[in-house]
Amino acid sequence: PMTTDMKEQSHRVRRHHHRTLHITTLFVLLSVIAADSVVRVFALQQQSSSLLINTRWKARLDVGLQPGTWMPKRFPGWAESGARLGLDLDVEFTDTPSSTGETLVGPKDSTFQLKVLPSSQPASFVSERGQQFVDFGDVGGWCIQRPTNNIKNTNGGLVKPEGLLRFWLDCKSGAKRNDVEICPETRLFFSTGVWDDPTGTEQMDQEYREVLSKLETMVDNAREEKNSDKKKKTF
Fold this sequence. Notes:
By secondary structure, the protein is α+β, with helices and mostly antiparallel strands. Helices cover 37% and strands 31% of the residues. It contains three helices and twelve strands; from the N terminus they run αβαβββββββββββα.
């Protein structure tokens, strides 16, 4: 049986253990919060230096069945004919913070507005019913994440981009061509590799120019040797 002194000592040990547990838990929470804050600040710094900001692009939407996707199982009959639905949109990557966040795109505080320019509204395509028009929302969202794992393209090839560009656009009216259909009020998600770091881009451009210069030198040398051989044969 425990004596009074032993019971008191046991209570002190348990109280100390609880205090230690609470302090450890608090430390872990603070560590997570601090780490999350560092990640968010780093993401904003990376985002603000992107060369995509305030640039305009022509986006080509090529909608159809891709090999290896889950679409045939979830939507039997969708695009089984092999038909494609093509739409052209002019978009601008702005530095205006987005009021909406999407898990598939990235953290809300590092997501910015993607504007659909009026010059491409409404988009259009030609189907068996003639020319069809498609309305998109004026604003989508975009985010660049810096991947640490290997990324593969649609052909299975390994690529190593500086960032992973993800964005969304809202198709308001929907569209249908043969058995390829985008339902009304559908949010479309996109993902692609991007090389947008100013320093990295300059280095890549310099490397490209050096390789191009070497190739041009090789072509010139080969041309001179060929001309020299012709002169020798003539004489």
